[in-house]
Each structure stands twice: as structure tokens, then as C-alpha cells.
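DM from R.C. (forwarded with permission)

"hey, sorry to bug you on a friday — could you get me a structure for this? deadline for the figure draft is monday and I only need the backbone to look sensible"
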Amino acid sequence: MNRAKGEIVWGRTIAPTRSVFFKNCWCAFQDWRKSRKLKATLHQFSDFELKDIGITRGEIDYLASLAMIERPDIISDLSPRA
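My reply, with the result:
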């Protein structure tokens, strides 16, 4: 029988522990915050700067959600230039 990490077996029932639940909630919250930070950073760029990196203002929400799925480190790659 395969069990997920952090699960306890009680008789015939498999129940995830509370710590796993809260860890998953915390990770989801952190991902949401990173996504919002990326969106805010990209919205600070001018249209010319966005065009220079190959995106439009309308694609920011899509790219922020995609970045959290595929490349969580992308936030550190994009920072506003002074």
C-alpha cells in the first residue's frame, strides 16, 4: 500500500496529519505572495521595458501564474532597474 508522506494509518483509514495540511497551506500562501510580488514588479516597468523583455502589460497576470508553476526562482531574475 502506498502512503503519502506524513500520513498516519488508523485502522483502515488514512488521514493526513495536521502539520502536512498547514505546511501545504503555508506553501500555497508563500507562492501567492511571490506571484503578487512578481506582478507588482512587472507593473512598475514601462511599456518600453516590457516590450524589451518580450511581454505586454496584458500578459503580466498570465506570466506570473505560469512562473509560480514552472520557475519559482523567476522573481529574483526580474527586478526593477533604477
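R.C.: lifesaver. Residues 7-77 form one domain.
me: no worries. DSSP finds four helices and two strands in the chain.
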